[in-house]
C-alpha cells in the first residue's frame, strides 16, 4: 500500500513526463483508460521510506469537457481522489498556465504548484517570487527544472506534507464572476445542493459553473434528472440572454475573463521581475 498518490496535472509540454521520469525511473506502468485511446501512466518511487504512487494525467489546458484529455483528467481527480495534485506549469508562460490551476482550486483538490522550466525562465532574465506567489495563491509553490531534477526533492516533500495536512479535505476556492452571473450561480448551487446532484463528487458551485459553461458531460448527467435539470437550464438560458443583450457576450466568455482577472490580480503584485539577460548587458 502507498503512503500517498500524487497526480501530475499540467498543460501539454509543461514537463510532466520529464518530472515523472526523473522521480520514478523505470518503475512505470503504461496502459489506456478503458474504451478510449488516452494513455494512462502510473509510477512508483520511495521517498524517506514512504512508497509513493504517481499518476501522470493527460495534458490539458482546462477542466472542461471539450477534449477527452480534460474529461479524463477531471474524472481521475474526482473518482480516484489522489491526496494531492502537483500542477506543473511552465514558469515562462505563467499567466496562461495558471488557468488550469484556477480550475483545480475551484474543484478544491489540494494543489502544489511546480514552476517548471525555471532554468529557461532564469535564462530569459525572469525572477519569480515563489514565496509571494504561494502566499497569494494559498498553495505551496516550488521552482523546478525537470530536466536536471532541480527541486524534485523539495516538490515531493511539499506535496506529501500538503496532502497530509489537508487529509482528503477538498476546499474549493470561491471566485466571483460578477453581478451578471454570481446571483444565478448562487440559486443554481442551492438547487444542486438540495437535489444532491453530483455533490458526492463535485462542489455544488462547480456543477453550477459547468452548467453555465454548457459542459456536455455535466449536462448529460443532468438530463437524467428531469425537473431539476429543467430548472437549471431555465436559469442558464435567462443568464445567457441577459449577457447577450446587455454585454453582447456569452457566460463562458465572462467566466474565462474573470478567471484571467483573478490570475492577473495576483501576477501584477510584483511576482515576476525581469532583469537584463547576459546578452542584453553586453
Ligand atoms: P509534458 O507534455 O508535460 O509531459 O512535457 P514533457 O515532459 O514531454 O516535456 C516537454 C519538453 O520540455 C521536452 O523537450 C523536455 O525535455 C522539456 N523540459 C521538461 N522540463 C524542462 C525543464 O525544467 N527545463 C527545460 N529547459 N526543458 C524542460
Ligand atoms: Mg507527457
UniProtKB/TrEMBL annotation:
Transmembrane helix among keywords: yes
Sequence positions that bind Mg(2+) 2: 22, 24-25
Locations listed in the record: Cell inner membrane
Residues the entry annotates as binding GTP: 10-17, 35-39, 56-59, 116-119
Residues in the signal sequence: none
Family stated for the protein in its record: Belongs to the TRAFAC class TrmE-Era-EngA-EngB-Septin-like GTPase superfamily. FeoB GTPase (TC 9.A.8) family.
Name listed for the protein in its UniProt record: Ferrous iron transport protein B
Organism expressing this protein natively: Geoalkalibacter subterraneus
Full-sequence range covered: 2 to 283 of 720
Amino acid at each position: 500500500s502507498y503512503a500517498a498518490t500524487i497526480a501530475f496535472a499540467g498543460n501539454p509540454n509543461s514537463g510532466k513526463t520529464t518530472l515523472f521520469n526523473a522521480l520514478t525511473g523505470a518503475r512505470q506502468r503504461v496502459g489506456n483508460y478503458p474504451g478510449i485511446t488516452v494513455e494512462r501512466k502510473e509510477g512508483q518511487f520511495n521517498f524517506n521510506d514512504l512508497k509513493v504512487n504517481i499518476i501522470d494525467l493527460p495534458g490539458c489546458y482546462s477542466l472542461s469537457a471539450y477534449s477527452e484529455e480534460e474529461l479524463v483528467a477531471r474524472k481521475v481527480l474526482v473518482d480516484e481522489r489522489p491526496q494531492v495534485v502537483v500542477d506543473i506549469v511552465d514558469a515562462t508562460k505563467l499567466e496562461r498556465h495558471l488557468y488550469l490551476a484556477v480550475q483545480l482550486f475551484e474543484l478544491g483538490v489540494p494543489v502544489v504548484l511546480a514552476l517548471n522550466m525555471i532554468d529557461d525562465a532564469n535564462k530569459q532574465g525572469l525572477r519569480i517570487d515563489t514565496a509571494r506567489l504561494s502566499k497569494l495563491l494559498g498553495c505551496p509553490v516550488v521552482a523546478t527544472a525537470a530536466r536536471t531534477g532541480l527541486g524534485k526533492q523539495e516538490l515531493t516533500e511539499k506535496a506529501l506534507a500538503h496532502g497530509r495536512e489537508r487529509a482528503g479535505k477538498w476546499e474549493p476556492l470561491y471566485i466571483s464572476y460578477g453581478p451578471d452571473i454570481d446571483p444565478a450561480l448562487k440559486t443554481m448551487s442551492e438547487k444542486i445542493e438540495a437535489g444532491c446532484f453530483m455533490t458526492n463528487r463535485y462542489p455544488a458551485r462547480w456543477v453550477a459553473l459547468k452548467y453555465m459553461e454548457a459542459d456536455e458531460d455535466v449536462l448529460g448527467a443532468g438530463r437524467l434528472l428531469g425537473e431539476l435539470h429543467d430548472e437549471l437550464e431555465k436559469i442558464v438560458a435567462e443568464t445567457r440572454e441577459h449577457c447577450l443583450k446587455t454585454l453582447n457576450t456569452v457566460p463562458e466568455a465572462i467566466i474565462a475573463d474573470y478567471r484571467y482577472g483573478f490570475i492577473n490580480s495576483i501576477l501584477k503584485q510584483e511576482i515576476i521581475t525581469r532583469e537584463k539577460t547576459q546578452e542584453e548587458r553586453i
